[in-house]
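Task card 7
Instruction: Convert sequence to structure tokens.
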Amino acid sequence: MAPQGVRRTAQFRTALLATAVLSAVAACGPQAISKTKGGPYAPGVDLSKQAVDGAEVGQRLMEAQQYELALEAFTRAALDQGLTPEILNGMGSANLGLGRLGQSETLLRRTVDAAPEWAGAWNNLGVVLMERGKFNEAEQVFRKAYALNDGQSDSIRDNLRFALAKLENDDNNAGQSEDYKLVRQGSSEFLIRKTP
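Output:
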């Protein structure tokens, strides 16, 4: 049996030899991945720049039909800016996309109370009312939106036509695909498609 000191020396030599072999093999391998521009790593956060507005992020997520994420973005924006009509409209529209009609109606009614001249908000409220089967009120709301917009929005006009057709003959429209167009502040529109 070898003395303990000799065994330790042999173990040390083996470990040293293994380290040397692994270092030589690693030196022959491919280059390490660079963290420079164009590499596979995500860029770092530039803390010196202004953060993107949460309401704008919410609008982009609405366009991508990511309603849950949009609602979170509008909620974060509300913490910074308060419950402005734009944020209330965004939250109401996101809830509509998620099928939360009661919450959506409440938020959109608050929006039109806060901004009674905003045609897009009236249109979005009309969409919720249509979804809830309140066709008479929806038709009146779409008429108000159309009047406020001076008939300039194709989306509002299409929604008004749909509401009028629904009122005229509810039975004939039962099998049709129902596409509603939500309008945001500015020129963008969101299409909410009702699933059969």
